[in-house]
Specification:
Helix content: over 70%
Radius of gyration: 28 Å
Number of helices: 10
Largest sheet: 2 strands, antiparallel
Number of strands: 2
Shape: extended
Strand content: under 5%
Strand order of the largest sheet: 1-2
Low-confidence stretches: 197-206, 335-339
Mean pLDDT: 78
Structural class: mainly alpha
Distance between the termini: 87 Å
Keywords: Membrane, Transmembrane, Transmembrane helix
Amino acid sequence: MTNFKQKLPILSPLFIALVIFHSLFVEYTVQFPDFISTDSPEQNAEMMKPKVIQESGLIGKIAYLESFLLELESKELPIDTDLEDTKDSVKRVLIGQKLFLGLVLFYLFLTFSAAVTFAFRAWFHKSIAHVLYPVSLVVLLPKLFIQLNLMAQKDILSYFHSAFLLFTYVITILAYRTIIKDKELYEGFQALQFSSSLEEEGRSPSNTKTGSYFAPIFHVIVIIFIGILIGNLIYIPLFLLQKHYVSEFSYFIFFLIALLSVFYIFNYNKVGGESKNKNWQNLAVSFAYLQYRFLRNGFLSIFSTILIILFVTFLFSLLLFNIDLIQNNLGLFGKASEF
């Protein structure tokens, strides 16, 4: 039994991944029917019960939006038809769905990272587990309730889905409990802890020698010149690209993110790979570490943004309070208006 519990942090992400993968193709929504009055009160109550409807998943919705967009751009439509606003709206909805698909895929890969980091005793596996398992418990619970509602509608497949989801939910709780209670120190891939330094990120350290007083001025001029070039050659074309070619811009951004991710994965493999492991094992942990860095930097960015918003709000409130205090007690604004 103890050995089985030790395997749960490796098995439970697999079951979570199966649930998420299934949701990419099949989705369930609760539909509230319109009220239609009849002579029978029992029939009225039956008609007003919400029903669970099976729909296409996220991939099906994206495919439908793309086909709908192709129909809007078809040459068979009348020439005088003005659908530019509709096209832009559909394109932006399509980008939102694709971004959500990217988030779901990131979550799907996170299950892989949680299993890999636990199996290879990586030092950051608990950080990934503290994100994956609470989120999974929240995600799985509505899916379980929906399947229970389908059981009430006497759907045969819902019995199997409910049993699978219930089993997944239980082993997820047990796996997370096992990880929390595990006091063993995981010290694998310690070199990755220092991968944020300049040398380990593939960059050479900057020269710290002091020169003449004209050197900082020259650096400022160079920075301004480079900023102008970047703005004219990169930022403005990117802005025009995302404005007029929404789909192409989204593909371009995804390609750049994927290319940068591959670069970092191989860089982490070079820096933190352990000689006792095979190359694919080091690559798998490097991929997991990249997700860990995404999560850490994302949480830091969100926390910093919240702090900045709270600080600016506090300053603005303090300014308004100060203005009201001066106006009520000293009447400076009233005296100034007399002039």
